[in-house]
Amino acid sequence: MKSEKLSFKFKFAFGIGQAGEGCFGQGLGFFLLFYYSQILGMSPGLAGSAIGIAVMIDAASDVFAGSISDHWQSKNGRRHPFMYASFVPLSLCFFLLFFPLVNSEWALFIWLAVFTNVARTMMSLYHVPHIALGAEITEDVADRTALVAYRQFFANIGGLF
């Protein structure tokens, strides 16, 4: 834990890590249901059910990600290994969600359910440790507040894309 004031460069670097989550969250929250129902022609009820299942499982995966990263011990720290490990599978799942390799309605349902669940779980393995890391970096309340502000700023910027 740092005792000196955090530099602008440090806060910026920490905050920019949230831009991808903003993009991911907005892509799934605003566009995924529309894409599967209107573009791919899947029944909106099935698409919504697949996404709903993923959201319910995501609630548990957030708790799991927090618990496992709280108790993890490695030379790279408690948080970083999960953040590094989630990047490639999350990126691949996000890509595959918008380029499904199947075309029947039930195959699309399974595809959407599986890849949305995996993507949300990978996002939990990045997002939850990233949030926890901010509280562990410094004891200074002003710096902690600034880290949250930078993180939220970049999440909003990422959400625009």
Automatic annotation (TrEMBL):
Any GO MF annotation of the entry: symporter activity
Any one Pfam family match given in the protein's UniProt record, by short name: MFS_2
Coiled-coil regions listed: none
GO cellular component, one term: plasma membrane
Keyword Membrane in annotation: yes
A single GO BP: carbohydrate transport
Keyword annotations of the record: Membrane, Transmembrane, Transmembrane helix
Signal peptide: none
Transmembrane segments: 12-36, 42-61, 82-102, 108-128
InterPro entries documented for this protein: MFS_2, MFS_trans_sf
Name under which the protein is recorded: Major facilitator superfamily (MFS) profile domain-containing protein
